[in-house]
Amino acid sequence: MGNWGESKTKALRWASVILVELGRGGPVLILLQFLYFGLPNAGMTLSSLSASIAALAWSTGAYTSEIIRAGLNSVAVGQREAAQTLGLNRSDTMRIVVVPQGLRIALPPLLGFALLILQATSLCFTIALPELISAANDIGSETFQYMSVLSLTGLMYALVCIPATFAVNYFERHLGRHD
User: Fold this and answer.
1) Residue 11 has pLDDT above 60, yes or no
2) How far from each other are the two terminal CA atoms of the chain, in whole angstroms?
3) How far apart are CA 154 and CA 157, in angstroms?
4) CB within 8 A of 177, min separation 6: which ones?
5) For a 10 Å CB count at each end of the chain, is N or C smaller?
6) pLDDT class of 172 with cuts at 50, 70, 90
7) Class of the domain covering 10-178
8) CA nearest 17: which of 32, 33, 6?
């Protein structure tokens, strides 16, 4: 049946491969710097918020597309063959058989990746986007209490990420129960 996520148009396939590999291969910090400081050399200027959204979306889209592709491709070929035997067409097979099973497999890695992206938002301070780390840095420069302010900032991230990590682990155990 072939690869279910592959375009028949060669140019589209190559463009998507290049975008995905650059998004996965380039660190978010480099993508931020490229979009905010590099694009003005090409005559295109983005605000720090727009550059942050674009860089995080590029990286997130690249990784999540690969996670979802892997989840869909992990569905046993026998499932697709059974659907074909039952007379389901390609789109119904995807909608009824492959996507539900593939997303169940892909959900835990997607949730784990969401935590990494939450943490990656702290890099946006490098292009002057006001966020938690830049606020902590501003407070530290006013009070000269950098260590305590940055420790509190780290604790705030931990208060969000640690419970979310437990939730991801719960979903991994719960969703994997039927294997």
Assistant:
1) yes
2) 24
3) 5
4) none
5) C
6) confident
7) mainly alpha
8) 6
